[in-house]
Each structure stands twice: as structure tokens, then as C-alpha cells.
């Protein structure tokens, strides 16, 4: 989509080049006559030093990798626009939230956390959801995740957490997984992980797509208005497309069938004009009410239940343009929680305080020096001036003799400005205390909200959590760690821990372990309680043979925005329609629903087709059929299994049919 009046798009255009149709040159502009043979002495002789073209080409290649992000290495991004719903100046000075309809260019990068750059995307993991707002007042980065809390309370433990979840150092196994001894050893030795581990074992950690997950700023920030009044604030992104998760068996299979599943979906949907949208909302606590709650509002392992502190919607983000070049944009974008604008400030959340150091620091090694703000994707769209100079890859040509503050030669410019002229003034919080290394006692309730999360889930979601624990702990080799985990999570729910214990071969939790008291459930944290029936962008496979007549079905699906792919025993055309896939190149895990309208004479093809139907059935997806002998007996009367094409659309719209029995998650 062409963005009119988008300053970021205009800025990027100045750095964008098209090579198509151009003569080949060196990096220095010299046109070349030959790019396939090195310069040698005789046709069979040695290559000579003089071959500047060979050396330039090879040197560039030798240096074309940069370190991947130490966490969130695997990611995918898109451009978009944020539009303010109204004037939020009663709570924040931020200009981009100051007027209904005000538009701000944005770039979002979604990611997994633990895996390396080439790892599969549908693994069980937290997802990153980082947004850069290119505002008139400078860049504002909202660097969030798809889970509203975190594993640890103090940033000093972050290297330990990450070392524990990454592949184990002696053999670099397993990739992009938490199902191994060191991760669970960390969990059982750090009880503050209890709440986040519950979310991590839930379907939140296996989202269906980046379009269908929520985002959270996690840490507690501060909003300040022009009168200096402050609120503590938590940020939320709510996907307009609703939420959906994979089922675990499916997630693991997709990791092999299409490791690019999430980035492909994001890219394809944006190309097709089906732009993902997310509403930005905040929870607010007035400065004076800091101590009013049963939990510490600075503790990043706690949610602020939405039922207690409601959301206020501030605007909507639409992702409407794919990158032109993955490396230049998605890989080189550099986020930092410290990139704020007037009206947005920090709290003393100890995780946030540590993050404020880490992000710029990591860019220095990743992007090779202090000038990464000059890379096109990172440049603000407003002017920037200061006395910082030089460093690797400096692009700006600063004119003049002066590069120091308090100068007479340049009228002491660039000069600072007052707050009323847009200068950033830190919130003047009064703080007194002794220098200590200690955790506040108000951070010490590790289990109440973990149990609240458990109690807030539907029975199906609870079953998935138990299955996830059994999978993860089942992969842990050290029996003592398995046992410690069962004891730890008995504090969250004894019956849950007992079931897990039985399945992973350890004794039931000790009788002396007390389950924590109940808090009122929070429906907002369940995915299934908040499901929206949706057809748009769902993907359906229809298996056809030469006798199939599915024109009407295709038409009615496509009218609803469903993507239809035809699958058959061979490629080519059937009834004037192109076959998109064979039973070998397609796979049921890549579809939201399947309609079988074929019956092949070849028994092998029929067996493959049966596998498609079984898998769709096992993953609770809509299944329709008209011609396939034998299927009646297997699936008759099961929820979401239909034999009439028009019923199929309804079954698809309702999402997964978890009320099906005999299926495997
Ligand atoms: Fe990050 N995190 N983080 N993190 N984080 C990074 O910065 C860090 C945390 C998040 O798409 C790194 O540029 C510390 C919470 C996202 O480019 C690094 C702590 C949340 C991304 C870093 C945390 C996040 C990162 C690595 C504990 C959710 C990817 C590469 C105190 C609110 C951004 C980089 C992108 C990336 C440090 C915890 C979100 C090392 C020290 C909590 C989405 O600086």
C-alpha cells in the first residue's frame, strides 16, 4: 500500500535503491566487464593481488554477518501507522496521543526469545512484540512481549535465566526449547518464576500467528501530564483479529513442515491487503495509590487484573507495508526501552531499571558502534542535533568547528530547551533509602497470581497446561528436578501437580506442601473465554479429483475472505482450476479446515488423504467431506465434522472444536 504523508516512508525512500536494469559496478562505482572469472596469470594460473574486484566482492561477503540478537534473534517485522483515538493530554503529554486522528508511522518487530536466527517459529516460547513510534518528538519504543509478566523480578538475574533456557553449553542442544534440564533447574531454584511458568505452559506460548496475539509492555511505566500529575501505567496491545493458539502436536509438526509459519503469515496477509490491527490500551494507577493493592505494582511478575484496573483505549495500529529488505530494516532495527518522549517516564521496577542499561549496550556489539541511530530504519523523522561525533560508519557531516557544549563560538548551540518547549524533564520522584542488595518483602508472594491464572482458565486450557508440564518435565533427565517442579507447582494447585507427578513418574507432592489461597479469577487472561468467531484469512484445503464440483463452496468461502487451496494427487489443472498442492507438498497442519471432495482409485493416495482428515480431526479443526468412503464410521456426529458444504463455513467460523473426543492435542 502506498502511504501518503508518511514521513518515515519518505525518509526511507532516500536510502532505497533498485538494482534492476543497471550496469554492474564495484562499490565505488566502476563499471565491470567480467564478474565470473578471477584475474589470473594464464587461464590455469594463480589469481593475482591486483584483482581489486575479486577482493572487494569476497571481502564484503566475508564480513556480511553480524552477531544475532542475544535474545529475540528470530523475528519478523512490518511498517504501519498508529492513529490516536482522542486527546489523552489528561494523562500524558505525549504529542502522538494528543489529538483524535493524529497519525504516527511505526515499525513492529515480532520475535521468539530463545531460538537462534534460523530456528523454527512455532516453538513453545514467549513472543516479542516491539514497536517503534517515529513521533514528531523523537522515537518512542514500546518493547513488549505477548505475556504480561516476566520470569524474574530483578534484571541482574537475566543472564542466568537466558543461559538456562538457551541450548545447553556442552552440546548446544536443544534449540529453541525450554524442555530441558537447565531451564527447569532454574525454575525450581527461583520460585519467582512460578507465575510466568504457568503462562509459559499455557496456550499463550504457542500463538497461531503474530496477528492473533496480545502484546504487553510488562514493566510499570509512568505517564505524566503537563501539570506534572503522574500515573503508573501498564501498556497493552489488543489484536482486532482476536486471539488464537495452536495445539501442541500441531505446533511441533509445523516447526518442521514450515519453520517460517509466522513470518510467512504476516508477510502474506500484508501483501494481500489484510492488514493486522492492534488497539493500544493502558491501565492507570494514580501516583498516590501506589500502595493500595495486595500486590506490589512495581513487581514485574504480577499482572494488574483487568477486572480491578480497567483498560483505557488510546489508539489503533495498522500494519500495512512489508519491508523491502529484511536485513536493512528488520535485522538492523534497534529498540531500547529508554527511547521515550515527554509524558512517558519510568518506574522503579527493578527489571525495567536493568533493561534501561542493556538495550543500547547490546546494539554496540550487534551493530558495531555508536552510530546505529543513523541507519535509515533507526533515524527519527524529526531533526536531531548534538555534539556527539565520529565513530565507525559515521554518515552525518556536521559542519563547523564546534563540537562541545558551553561554547561561545556558536552562541552555545545546539542549546537545551525548557519543558514547555518540548524538552524532556524526568519525573521528580522523591526517593530516600540505604544502598542495599535486597528484595522487597512486598515482592515475595510468588504463588497467588499463579493460582489465579490457573483458576481463570477453561477446563480445556487447564488440560493443555497439564499436558505442557508433562511434555516439558518429561524431557528433563534429572529426576530430582522433575520432583522439585511437582512440589513447587503443588503450591499453585495440588490436583494439577498430582496428575503431572503420576504421568512423569515421580511421587506425589509432599503432604506438607500447602496450596495458596484463591484469588477471584480474571477472565481476561483466558484465550478461549475471549474468542471471536472469525473467517477472514483462515486457510482451507480442499482435496479434489477430476469429478469434484466445489465451485460453489470455493465461491462462498472466498466471499468471506477465506484463503482456499486446492489439493490433489497430482499438480496441473482440474475443471479449469489450478491445483495448488499435491498430497505430498501440502500438509494438514498448515490449514484451519479441510474439505474432502475426492476419492482416488489409487489406494496410496487415499491413505494419504485419510491422514489429512485424521490430523485435521485430531487438531479439532473443521472437517467436511462428500465423497470419501469410510469416513462416516470414523467421524460420524463429531462436533465440527460436516457433510454439507454450507455447514462447513459455520464449522470453520467457530474455531477449534475442543468438545471432540478421541482427539490428540
Ligand atoms: Fe529484552 N532484550 N530484556 N525483554 N527484549 C533484548 O536487546 C533484556 C525483557 C524484548 O525485536 C535485547 O536489541 C533484559 C522483558 C523484546 O529487536 C537485550 C531484560 C521484555 C526484544 C534485552 C529483558 C523484553 C528484546 C537483545 C531483563 C518484555 C526484541 C537484542 C531485565 C517487556 C527487540 C536487543 C527486537 C531484546 C535485554 C527482559 C522484550 C539484550 C536485561 C521483560 C521484544 O538488550
Automatic annotation (TrEMBL):
EC number: 1.11.1.6
Coiled coil residues, start to end: none
Cofactor needs: heme
Biased composition (Basic and acidic residues): 1-21
Annotated stretches, region: Disordered: 1-30
Ranges of residues in domain Catalase core: 25-413
Reactions that this protein is recorded to catalyse: 2 H2O2 = O2 + 2 H2O
Keyword Repeat: no
InterPro entries, per database record: Catalase, Catalase_AS, Catalase_clade2, Catalase_clade2_helical, Catalase_core, Catalase_haem_BS, Catalase_immune_responsive, Catalase_large_C
PROSITE patterns, per database record: CATALASE_1, CATALASE_2, CATALASE_3
GO molecular function: catalase activity
Described function: Decomposes hydrogen peroxide into water and oxygen; serves to protect cells from the toxic effects of hydrogen peroxide.
Protein's UniProt name: Catalase
Annotated organism of origin: Solibacillus faecavium
Amino acid at each position: 500500500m502506498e502511504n501518503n504523508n508518511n514521513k518515515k516512508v519518505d525518509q526511507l525512500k532516500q536510502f532505497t535503491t533498485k538494482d534492476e536494469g543497471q550496469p554492474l559496478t564495484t562499490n565505488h562505482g566502476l563499471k565491470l566487464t567480467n564478474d565470473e572469472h578471477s584475474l589470473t596469470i594464464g587461464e590455469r594460473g594463480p589469481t593475482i593481488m591486483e584483482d581489486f574486484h575479486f577482493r572487494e566482492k569476497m571481502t564484503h561477503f566475508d564480513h556480511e554477518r553480524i552477531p544475532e540478537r542475544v535474545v529475540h534473534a528470530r523475528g519478523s517485522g512490518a511498517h504501519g501507522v498508529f492513529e490516536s483515538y482522542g486527546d489523552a493530554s489528561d494523562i500524558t503529554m505525549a504529542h502522538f496521543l494528543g489529538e483524535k486522528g493524529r497519525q504516527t508511522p511505526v515499525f513492529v518487530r515480532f520475535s521468539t526469545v530463545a531460538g537462534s536466527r534460523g530456528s523454527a517459529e512455532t516453538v513453545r516460547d514467549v513472543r516479542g512484540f516491539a514497536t517503534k513510534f517515529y513521533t514528531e518528538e523523537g522515537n518512542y519504543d514500546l518493547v513488549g512481549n505477548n505475556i504480561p509478566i516476566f520470569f524474574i523480578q530483578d534484571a541482574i538475574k537475566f543472564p542466568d535465566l537466558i543461559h538456562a533456557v538457551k541450548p545447553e553449553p556442552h552440546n548446544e542442544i536443544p534449540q529453541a526449547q525450554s524442555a530441558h534440564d537447565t531451564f527447569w533447574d532454574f525454575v525450581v531454584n527461583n520460585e519467582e518464576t512460578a507465575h510466568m511458568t504457568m503462562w509459559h505452559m499455557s496456550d499463550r506460548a504457542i500463538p497461531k500467528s503474530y496477528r492473533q496475539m496480545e502484546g504487553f509492555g510488562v514493566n510499570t511505566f509512568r505517564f505524566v501530564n503537563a501539570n506534572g500529575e503522574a500515573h503508573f501505567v501498564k501498556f497493552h496491545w489488543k489484536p482486532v483479529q482476536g486471539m488464537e493458539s495452536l495445539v501442541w502436536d500441531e505446533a511441533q509438526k509445523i516447526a518442521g513442515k514450515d519453520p517460517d509459519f509466522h513470518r510467512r503469515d504476516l508477510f502474506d496477509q500484508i501483501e494481500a491487503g489484510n492488514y493486522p490491527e492492534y488497539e493500544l490500551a493502558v491501565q492507570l494507577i494514580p501516583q498516590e495509590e501506589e500502595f493500595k493493592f495486595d500486590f506490589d505494582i512495581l513487581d514485574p511478575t504480577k499482572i494488574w487484573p483487568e477486572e480491578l484496573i480497567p483498560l483505557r483505549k488510546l489508539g489503533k495500529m495498522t500494519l500495512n507495508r512489508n519491508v523491502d529488505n529484511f536485513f536493512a530494516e528488520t535485522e538492523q532495527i534497534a529498540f531500547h526501552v529508554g527511547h521515550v518522549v515527554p509524558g512517558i517516564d519510568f518506574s522503579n521496577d527493578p527489571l525495567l531499571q536493568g533493561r534501561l542499561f542493556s538495550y543500547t549496550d547490546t546494539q554496540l556489539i550487534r551493530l558495531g558502534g555508536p552510530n546505529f541511530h543513523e541507519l535509515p530504519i533507526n533515524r527519527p523523522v524529526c531533526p536531531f542535533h548534538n555534539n556527539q561525533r565520529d565513530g565507525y560508519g559515521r554518515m552525518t557531516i556536521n559542519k563547523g568547528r564546534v563540537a562541545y557544549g558551553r561554547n561561545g563560538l556558536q552562541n552555545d548551540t545546539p542549546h537545551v530547551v525548557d519543558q514547555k518547549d518540548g524538552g524532556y524533564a524526568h519525573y521528580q520522584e522523591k526517593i530516600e533509602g540505604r544502598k542495599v542488595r535486597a528484595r522487597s518483602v512486598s515482592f515475595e508472594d510468588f504463588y497467588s497470581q499463579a493460582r489465579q491464572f490457573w483458576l481463570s482458565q477453561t477446563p480445556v486450557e487447564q488440560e493443555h497446561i497439564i499436558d505442557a508440564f508433562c511434555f516439558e518435565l518429561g524431557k528433563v533427565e534429572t529426576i530430582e528436578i522433575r520432583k522439585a517442579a511437582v512440589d513447587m507447582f503443588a503450591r499453585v494447585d495440588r490436583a494439577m501437580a498430582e496428575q503431572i507427578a503420576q504421568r512423569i513418574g515421580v511421587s506425589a507432592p509432599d503432604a506438607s506442601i500447602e496450596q495458596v489461597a484463591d484469588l477471584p479469577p480474571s477472565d481476561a487472561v483466558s484465550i478461549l473465554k475471549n474468542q471471536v468467531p472469525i473467517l477472514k484469512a483462515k486457510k482451507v484445503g480442499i482435496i479434489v479429483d477430476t469429478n469434484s464440483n466445489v465451485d460453489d463452496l470455493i465461491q462462498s468461502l472466498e466471499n468471506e475472505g477465506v484463503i482456499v487451496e486446492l489439493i490433489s494427487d497430482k499438480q496441473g489443472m482440474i475443471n479449469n482450476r489450478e491445483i495448488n498442492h499435491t498430497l505430498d507438498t501440502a500438509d494438514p497442519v498448515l490449514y484451519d479446515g479441510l474439505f474432502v471432495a475426492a476419492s482416488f482409485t489409487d489406494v496410496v493416495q487415499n491413505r494419504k488423504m485419510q491422514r489429512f482428515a485424521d490430523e485435521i480431526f485430531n487438531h479439532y479443526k473443521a472437517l467436511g467431506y462428500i465423497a470419501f468412503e469410510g469416513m462416516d464410521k470414523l467421524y460420524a456426529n463429531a462436533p465440527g465434522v460436516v457433510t454439507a458444504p454450507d455447514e462447513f463455513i459455520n464449522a470453520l467460523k467457530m474455531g477449534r472444536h475442543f468438545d471432540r473426543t478421541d482427539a490428540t492435542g
